[in-house]
Design brief:
The complex is a heterodimer.
Chain A: E1 4-13, E2 16-26, E3 31-35, H1 42-50, E4 57-62, E5 65-66, E6 77-80, H2 92-102, H3 107-120, H4 136-148, E7 154-158, H5 166-183, E8 186-191, H6 194-200, E9 203-208, E10 211-216, H7 218-223, H8 228-233, E11 240-249, E12 252-257, E13 263-265, H9 268-274, E14 283-287, E15 292-295, E16 302-313, E17 317-324, E18 327-334, E19 344-349, E20 355-358
Helix pairs in contact in A: 2-3, 2-4
Chain B: H1 2-34, H2 38-41, H3 58-64, H4 80-110, H5 120-144, H6 150-174, H7 182-188, H8 194-207, H9 214-238, H10 242-250, H11 255-266, H12 268-283, H13 287-292, H14 300-306, E1 308-309, E2 313-314, H15 316-336, H16 338-345
Antiparallel strand pairs in B: 1-2
The chains are: A alpha+beta, B mainly alpha.
């Protein structure tokens, strides 16, 4: 069991900076996800934790001990690769037992451990098959088993489920959480799928272009994104963004939509932040689709007006696209809700859950 | 319609037959000739015998035994030493090239970004520059009178390696690409006609007293086929995902462990076909062995050459017999690794 601390980690490939001054602390036994689009440096970070890449600068600590100079095999990490990295010239049994064999354990001990891991992953009937003949799903299980068997204190998974089919992926997500709870390992999970990160991780690190944008629990990331990128990346459908300007009209502070003129009132706390702010003329208002309500008639809480542009029925709910001025926004409506295309709708916002971002730096103003 | 199709098929069949005949007939001729008595293989009778009329093992007897009798015979010595020599130097050279070549290929595949892919003008330019730089030094070495001493050869070789790398690095400044490529330096070894480098090698070998020794031949065979091994094996290694080595390393293997336990078993098909290819190259070599051996270690091709001379005429029968024997090792080797060979030769053709 071990905690991981990254300190001002930096990795350059030639002139490309893959990871830039990344500092992160993952407590012992926690399930952390590195989330970001492809090319954001999450796999490089992972490789540095495993020791497969040497950081250009910065330090990595396991349990407070610097680990930079320790070779990968001695770090006590397990690594599951995106493309499984199964040894196709060996049987399933040999694959799973590989780590123990390298470490020089006794044959009967290896056999016992392999059987146990195989039972946990339901691989027992395939143990003596050639690993190259397995289905992709089973290959990924074998890869998981091979990393698990050495009981690493730290378990690194690099998009392990992205090649699996949807149904099996859901199942493996559940399994992985169960295994992690049971073994109480520190897990680092790389993914570009925000649903995967939100559903499994205790903590999520959102990365973009080699930089860490935000590190926090799924709740924090969802409710309090630090910038527009994080806000956009988390949640499906995406958060709605509307370019606004801060104005005081008739003594009442407002955010006025640039492409239409829809007004959103500003409370006192936000007013204090925005009064005299340099970027007051260039703001972005963000609101998640699930925090918007629709009504066919004007109600007391109706703030904006819009017309229905498109509707996506998703079964239990509907995603309604609305045109507000020249901006398009998405709203989650109940399944029973069936407006016509082009119908006028009155839109209410959960004002406490709106976010205001600086139009230039894209950072949240809070 | 139907008729023209049949005719087309027939034509195709006949054409195929002709091509197959062209390739198999020399083999057929050699096999039958090996068993013909002298009267049938020589032109003395003025008749062509398509099949041996009186099959005999005389030809084998002639090449495989030493002749101590008082009457004239084609060859005085037996071919057995040359068969032994061929086996030792071919296998030795193949092993030598395979061991260093496979390791080099793995290094080039995993530990550098060197692809060795150069546009032809950079490749030729680099080679031409190297020759231009080395020529004056050669004249100087000759003037100093050290060119045929071991220290002269050693310093000149070192100079060549350094100059090659310096030129590569300098070119890399102007041409944004792998102009300093080590993989290309290795390929460069194959860019000269063999005859051009054999004379200097002969001089070097005589300085180092390597002429007419098995290890002298093994070194030359190894070095000459080394580039093939590197380039073939590199392409096989490139097809093995890096994650496999990394997985083994994370699980506690050393780099060597990952290489021997994981990567090498995965490219064994490629290794087998490379081995066969290199073995055939070494086995069928005539030029190198002719220049670097004289008395003790001539190989089969060199020995075959002694069966033709103005004194004894062309000994077609014994030649065919020895040729038939010489075919056996590559064929046996090929059959032994056939299982790997088919996969090795098509490796990388199918993406998983």
């Amino acid at each position: 069991m071990a905690s991981i601390r990254l300190e001002k980690l930096r990795k350059e490939f030639g002139s490309v900076v893959a990871v830039d001054s990344l500092s992160l602390e993952i407590p012992d036994g926690e399930f952390a996800a590195l989330l970001g689009p492809s090319g954001c440096g999450k796999t490089t970070t992972m490789n540095m934790i495993a020791g497969l890449e040497t950081p250009t600068a910065g330090a990595i600590y396991f349990d407070g001990k610097p680990i930079n100079a320790t070779p990968p095999g001695k770090r006590g990490v397990g690594f599951v690769f995106q493309n499984y990295a199964i040894f196709t010239h060996m049987t399933v049994r040999e694959n799973i037992g590989f780590g123990l064999k390298i470490a020089g354990h006794a044959r009967d001990e290896i056999g016992r451990e392999v059987n146990e891991v195989a039972k946990l992953l339901q691989l027992t009937p395939m143990l003596d098959m050639n690993a190259g003949r397995l289905s992709i799903n089973d290959m990924q299980k074998v890869a998981l088993g091979r990393s698990m068997i050495t009981k690493p204190a730290i378990f690194l998974l690099d998009e392990p489920f992205s090649n699996l089919d949807a149904a099996f992926r859901e199942y493996m997500r559940g399994e992985l959480k169960r295994i992690q709870r049971r073994l109480k390992q520190t897990m680092v999970y790389v993914t570009h799928d925000q649903v995967e990160a939100m559903s499994m991780a205790d903590k999520i690190a959102v990365m973009y272009c080699g930089e860490l944008y935000q590190f926090g629990s799924p709740d924090e990331i969802y409710n309090w994104p630090v910038n527009q990128f994080v806000a956009r990346f988390i949640g499906s459908p995406n958060m709605n963004f509307i370019n606004c300007a801060y104005q005081v009209q008739d003594g009442r502070p407002m955010l006025v939509q640039k492409a239409g003129g829809a007004r959103t009132p500003v409370d006192d706390k936000r007013r204090r932040l925005l009064d005299g702010a340099a970027s007051a003329g260039q703001l972005i208002l963000g609101i998640r689709p699930e925090h918007v309500t629709l009504a066919a008639e004007r109600r007391a809480d109706s703030l904006w007006e819009g017309t229905v542009y498109a509707i996506e029925p998703l079964g239990p709910k509907k995603v309604v696209h609305l045109k507000v001025g020249d901006d398009l926004i998405q709203v989650i409506g109940p399944a029973a809700y069936r407006p016509r295309i082009g119908a006028r709708q009155y839109i209410g916002l959960d004002l406490a859950r709106t976010h205001v971002f600086d139009g230039k730096s894209r950072a949240v103003i809070r | 319609m139907q008729k023209s199709k049949t005719r087309q098929n027939l034509l195709r069949f006949v054409l195929a037959l002709i091509v197959v005949g062209m390739f198999t007939f020399p083999t057929y001729w050699m096999v039958t000739m090996a068993f013909k008595p002298k009267a049938e293989w020589s032109s003395a009778a003025g008749v062509i015998y398509w099949v041996p009329k009186n099959p005999t093992l005389d030809n084998f007897d002639t090449v495989l035994t030493e002749y101590k009798g008082q009457f004239f015979r084609a060859n005085q010595s037996s071919a057995l030493p040359s068969i032994r020599s061929s086996i030792i130097v071919s296998i030795g050279g193949t092993l030598f090239a395979l061991i260093i070549g496979t390791l080099a290929a793995y290094g080039l595949s995993r530990f550098t970004t060197d692809t060795g892919d150069l546009p032809w003008y950079v490749a030729i330019g680099r080679l031409a520059l190297l020759v231009a730089v080395l020529l004056p030094f050669m004249v100087l070495w000759a003037r100093l009178g050290i060119i045929s001493h071991w220290y002269g050869i050693a310093t000149f070789t070192l100079l060549g390696i350094v100059a090659d790398q310096v030129i590569g690095r300098l070119l890399a400044r102007y041409y944004k690409g792998p102009a300093g490529s080590l993989a290309f330096s290795i390929l460069q070894l194959r860019m000269f006609p063999p005859m051009a480098i054999l004379i200097p090698i002969m001089i070097m070998w005589s300085t180092f007293k390597l002429i007419d020794t098995w290890y002298g031949l093994v070194i030359v065979y190894g070095v000459v086929t080394f580039p093939f091994v590197v380039w073939l094996m590199k392409s096989f290694f490139d097809d093995v995902p890096r994650e496999l080595d990394e997985a083994a390393i994370v699980d506690g293997s050393s780099n060597w462990g990952a290489f021997f336990k994981v990567v090498l078993p995965l490219v064994k098909c490629g290794l087998a076909s490379t081995a066969l290819f290199v073995f055939i190259l070494n086995w069928s070599d005539f030029l190198v062995a002719l220049l670097l051996t004289n008395r003790y270690w001539p190989t089969i091709p060199v020995f075959l050459n002694t069966l033709v001379s103005s004194e004894i005429g062309a000994q077609h029968g014994p030649k065919a017999a020895l040729g038939l024997l010489a075919v056996i090792p590559p064929v046996v080797f090929g059959l032994l690794i056939q299982r790997y060979l088919v996969r090795g030769l098509t490796f990388g053709a199918i993406k998983k």
